[in-house]
Automatic annotation (TrEMBL):
<dbReference type="Pfam" id="PF00205">
    <property type="entry name" value="TPP_enzyme_M"/>
</dbReference>
<dbReference type="InterPro" id="IPR000399">
    <property type="entry name" value="TPP-bd_CS"/>
</dbReference>
<comment type="similarity">
    <text>Belongs to the TPP enzyme family.</text>
</comment>
<dbReference type="InterPro" id="IPR029061">
    <property type="entry name" value="THDP-binding"/>
</dbReference>
<dbReference type="InterPro" id="IPR029035">
    <property type="entry name" value="DHS-like_NAD/FAD-binding_dom"/>
</dbReference>
<feature type="domain" description="Thiamine pyrophosphate enzyme TPP-binding">
    <location>
        <begin position="188"/>
        <end position="347"/>
    </location>
</feature>
<dbReference type="InterPro" id="IPR011766">
    <property type="entry name" value="TPP_enzyme_TPP-bd"/>
</dbReference>
<dbReference type="Pfam" id="PF02775">
    <property type="entry name" value="TPP_enzyme_C"/>
</dbReference>
<dbReference type="InterPro" id="IPR012000">
    <property type="entry name" value="Thiamin_PyroP_enz_cen_dom"/>
</dbReference>
<dbReference type="InterPro" id="IPR045229">
    <property type="entry name" value="TPP_enz"/>
</dbReference>
<feature type="domain" description="Thiamine pyrophosphate enzyme central">
    <location>
        <begin position="1"/>
        <end position="121"/>
    </location>
</feature>
<protein>
    <recommendedName>
        <fullName>3D-(3,5/4)-trihydroxycyclohexane-1,2-dione acylhydrolase (Decyclizing)</fullName>
    </recommendedName>
</protein>
<keyword id="KW-0786">Thiamine pyrophosphate</keyword>
């Protein structure tokens, strides 16, 4: 299989990568930085790889005998904490301008620009391609994940109210999947994982998600920067309530400079990402819901806080549209795209998901000693996960 990383985008190797994959039949998985280098509906596209990847890409990684990395650093998320490449005899060939990344996983290094390197590889492999059975296997897995995406992103599947975050992301994807030049921006929380697994990207410039450091507050400031760099592109900022609270003030700058961006403010009344992670590790979502201190228990399990983020956005000078259903959101989003000023679409969503089904592991240590049965069970699961790790050079 081939892993398309950020280098495939930075070198503008899109045409070469797509042609190489089309001719050889090698399935292409992508990282956050590489998403869009191959469009989601390309015959070789199998979606995101790793801890927040697709079942199709992760299944192919588990059985791959050769992995060709193009412009990827093989981060912890991409490799699912070094568990996703499961064959004992798997070999790596890494095409990268940085020798450090080219030699990772004891690979055969190809130190070169991604576009030039793909051109050379295509010439050397001119008479080689995968067999028809493997092409069919790849398509079967990719089609299966597309059905999964449809199931978690489309409304009317028995969820809500309020709607799931994935339903909102699906609506945005539907309403931006066209010929218009649009850049989607996101950074921290649960949304980057949902986007990596579910987002259907066609254009490598249309997907900008910072997930290396989960930089809360990055989104609106980044949207302003993208609009300044590419004023002809429609800029859509996806931001959760927790990240919005970190840095919302750049809305003022956008209004002052007359720069129009669309901000989709997904408000689930808490910290969904760390809440779900803590629950999966046996810690019951401690302190991850916007609730007041309960004088009877001394815990943060009181009533909901009287926080109105839509009103806050309006106070910063943006036009604000409120939505509580997917239908209301779709209407508001279309109006925001047509507007001439920075517009915030505020939508209330379900704090507890559902999220895309997971198909990979992530190395998050669990307390070895605890009085909670849930934490002790989580520790046993963590030890089982550690056994599958591959300590590559």
């Amino acid at each position: 299989m081939l892993v398309a990383g950020g280098g495939a985008v930075y070198s503008e190797a899109w045409a070469e990568l797509r042609a190489f994959a089309q001719r050889t039949g090698i399935p292409v998985a992508d990282t956050h930085a590489g998403k869009g280098a191959v469009p989601w509906d390309h015959p070789a596209a199998v979606g995101a790889l790793g801890a927040t990847g697709t079942a199709a890409a992760n299944a192919l990684a588990a059985e791959a005998d050769v992995v060709l990395g193009v412009g990827t650093r093989y981060s912890d998320f991409t490799t699912a904490s070094r568990t996703v490449f499961a064959r004992p005899d798997v070999a790596f060939v890494n095409l990268n301008v940085a020798r450090l990344d080219a030699v990772k996983h004891a690979a055969e290094p190809l130190v070169a620009d991604a576009r030039a390197g793909l051109e050379a590889l295509d010439a050397e492999l001119a008479d080689w391609q995968v067999d028809d059975d493997y092409r069919a296997h790849v398509r079967e897995l990719a089609d299966g994940w597309r059905r999964t995406t449809d199931a978690v992103c489309r409304p009317g599947r028995g969820h809500g109210p309020p709607p799931a975050q994935t339903e909102i992301l699906g609506a945005v994807n539907d309403l931006t999947d066209g010929p218009d030049d649009i850049t989607i921006i996101n950074a921290a929380g649960s949304m980057p994982g949902d986007l990596q697994a579910l987002w259907r990207a066609r254009d490598p410039k249309a997907y900008h998600v910072e997930y290396a450091y989960s930089t809360m507050g990055y989104e609106i400031a980044a949207g302003l920067g993208v609009k300044m760099a590419a004023p002809d592109r429609e800029v859509v900022v996806l931001v959760g309530d927790g990240s919005y609270l970190m840095l919302s003030q750049e809305i003022v700058t956008a209004v002052a400079e007359g720069l129009k961006i669309v901000v989709v403010l997904v408000d689930n009344g808490g910290f969904a990402s760390i809440g779900a992670l803590s629950e999966s590790l046996g810690s019951q979502r401690f302190g991850t819901r916007y609730a007041g201190r309960n004088p009877d228990t001394g815990e943060l399990d009181g009533g909901p806080l009287p926080v109105d983020l839509a009103a806050n956005a309006a106070s910063l000078g943006a036009d604000v549209l409120r939505a509580t259903t997917v239908a209301e959101f779709r209407d508001a989003f279309v109006r925001a795209k047509e507007a001439e000023r920075t517009t915030v679409v505020h939508v209330v969503t379900d704090l507890t998901g559902p999220n895309p089904p997971s198909s990979a592991w992530w190395d998050v240590p669990v307390s070895e000693v605890s009085e909670l049965d849930s934490t002790r069970r989580a520790y046993e699961e963590y030890r089982d996960g550690k056994r599958a790790q591959r300590p590559y050079l």
